[in-house]
Amino acid sequence: MSLTYEGHELAVAVADLLTHPDDPSLPIHQPWWRQSLALGVPGIALLHVELAAAGLRPWQRAHHWLTAATSGPVTTGPDSHPFHGAPALAHVLACAAAHQPGSYARALDGLDTAIAADARRRVAAAHARIDVGELPALAEFDTIRGLTGLGAYLLRRPSGEKELRSVLEYLVRLTTPLHRDGEALPGWWTGSGPNGRTDDRFPGGHGNTGVAHGIAGPLTLLALAALQGVLVPGHLAAITTVCAWLDRWRSDTDAGPIWPYWITRAQLRAGHAPKPSAQRPSWCYGTAGLAHAQQLAALATGDPVRRVAAGDALARALIDPRQLAATTDPSLCHGYAGLAHIAHRIAADAPPGTAARLDARVPHLLRMIDPAGAGPRRTAAALIAAAPGPGLLEGAAGVALAALSCSTASTPDSSWDSCLLTVRPAHPLK
């Protein structure tokens, strides 16, 4: 059986067990899950949208799930973020509208108005914070909760260009050092621990490298915007600044380069960090997300050396038994599905030799979703039953979407993963 068949077969099997949102057996009845792209209904709706767009299942199923997601009050403003509330619902509706032009226009107009207002408020607060020399919270700028995630949505919406530019201008300013206690800190240095709260293990805070919560998220958005021809003053210089910081903290090992998940204040003062032990090379933290960010940065700045190095870093990580052993679940966020999806995305823009190495690893990664060979139906049932539920980041819907994206059955212009910043870029600067 071919990889293409297996990829879309698993996606269909998951969707067929999530046919209708009124099914009382589904673990999606917490009230807040209706608006949670990470864990709940919007992620499942996104799977049905992509299967309908590929002609594999009917649009009516997607409509049922979209209706369920939008059937109650929508959270906006400070209590919303890219994976909950208005931005989360707007992302899924925009994906559906891209495949069915003209649909959901009224709902999207209302959501876009709310998202634009929230982006303006957040940008103004961020600039005010920088003006007084305070450190940012991770949720100010990150992909999951912050302005990078909002910017990823605005990049897709023609009506959001003004707000997008303001977000990009803020991210450029974020790369300017802050001076605290006689030290120069990266502008994205946060006073908290990686969980966003004060943590005694991180006295003096930390510098986060990840895509989900760290500086690799802003780097990726800046690169994607540049590749789409949206540039603000200092844009390419900011990309170069972040890449140089990542280069500084990279460890070169026998299995390829490894970046620490974060840098502590003591390590910053010492100028070096311990070489990371084997760690999972995931989307949220680690080599996969960082390799993709740096590949896009290389394309945006015309850096062929970094482009080759980025693809090579992931290709080497995916044959390292220690890093693969650290990957222990099938999820999109930090598991085998996410690795397969990112390997597939990086291969599409890598030099031919690197692309072949990455493409060769995708079938193995997808097989690890079902190592016992239980088959699509049983695997789908197990994924849906597993904690934390059938959503996008750690659940069955995300695994199914990743499997579908690695299949030729998927739609080539799909942008379901723009919320993860792994969407295929445009290349006007090449």
Automatic annotation (TrEMBL):
GO terms for biological process: peptide modification. The keyword Lyase does not apply. It holds the Pfam family LANC_like. CDD domains: LanC. Keywords: Metal-binding, Zinc. InterPro entries: LanC, LANC-like. Zn(2+) binds at residues 284, 333-334. GO terms for molecular function: metal ion binding. SUPFAM superfamilies: LanC-like (SSF158745). The keyword Zinc applies. It comes from the Bacteria. This is Lanthionine synthetase. It comes from Micromonospora globbae.
